[in-house]
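Troubleshooting log. The previous structure file for this entry was overwritten by mistake, so regenerating from the original sequence record. Sequence copied from the archived sheet and checked twice against the printout by T.R.
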Amino acid sequence: MLTSVDTDLIRVLADPLRLRIVTLLAKETLCTTHLVEETGARQTNLSNHMKVLREAGVVETEPCGRYTYYRLKPDVLTSLAGKFAELAESARTAAENKRACP
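Regenerated output below.
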């Protein structure tokens, strides 16, 4: 069953730019400059989205001199995927269940 934490995470990932960022970070660890180049987003806008992703526990940071690198935390996504897999399995087994109308 999805919890409020899961639904909050779904809302975080529902934003197109944040989903693009997560997709990029799934391939490699990137700094803010790389993410600006790849997404075309303004640096301030990107920083706001990165803050949301950090607070949701989706990414972690690694300071490197004057740059900040971002790394995806795959366990968070694996957990969410597991919840969706459970829902899908429940739907398969409940396909024949139909509540009668009064």
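The chain has a mean pLDDT of 91. Archived copy saved in two places this time.
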